[in-house]
Amino acid sequence: MFRHHKLGSEGAGVEHVSTALPGDESPDGVQAEGVVLSWKDSHEEHKRILQVGVAFDDGEVVEFEAHVSDYLHLSAEVRAQLGLAHDDDLIVLGLVDGAKVPVRYDPADRRQVVVDEAALHQRELQRHIASQHDEGVRAQERRRGL
After folding, report:
1. CA–CA separation, 36 vs 135, rounded Å?
2. Is the alpha carbon torsion for 10, 121, 26, 113 positive or negative?
């Protein structure tokens, strides 16, 4: 599962694990947090090419490139389970410079690192749900004249 590839002229990118929500297993490896150093649009629709850096406690820094979807699509079933609006099926991911992203790495070779898309999707879904809740509370307060 852990493979690190620099993007070449052929367009080969980091091999990564992508899972559907909710409740899917996380990929193997040790979880850590990386930072988006830079990004650019991919030739693939709704994908970004991220340059991610990971700084370990011992001072080692690893940088890698990853092709990552820039949005999360929620099925009707997931929206219903979570009580989200019918038209609320796309969540745009905040994959910009400085954004923190969950990663997984092989402890035997920390250069073998990937964006943990399952964890990224879970985190962004939780943020979206919290945002929807906050909007609902504000709307109720406005209706009550608070």
Report:
1. 28
2. positive
Looking at 56-60, 105-109, 127-131, which range is the least confident one? 127-131
CA distances (Å), origin 35, targets 17, 43, 113: 19, 22, 13
Q: Using DSSP, state whether 116 is helix, strand or coil.
A: coil
Find the length of the chain.
146
SS3 2: coil
pLDDT at 95 over 80: yes
| Continuous segment of H or E residues that includes residue 117 | helix 117-143
With a CB cutoff of 8 Å and minimum separation 6, the contacts of 85 are 79, 132
Domain range summary for the chain, segments of one domain joined by +? 30-143
pLDDT interval class at 133 (50, 70, 90): low
Q: What is the distance between the alpha carbons of residues 19 and 22, in angstroms, rounded to a whole number?
A: 9
